[in-house]
Design goal:
The protein is mainly alpha-helical.
Length: 63
Amino acid sequence: MTLAQVLAGVAVVLAVEGLLYAVAPDAMRRAVGRLAELPEQRLRVGGLVAAAAGIGVAWLITR
């Protein structure tokens, strides 16, 4: 995986997240509010799972 591919992936994530905020700002505000209420340990586990899934998908795509 090259740096250009990593940056392209980051760009796609930013674009999707930006579209979500543009299309459904109230839903995103509620989602962020719910995230703020979650226990720290649950956020850590969720973040690790999401990171592992992202790395796995990137690995499969670039194989």
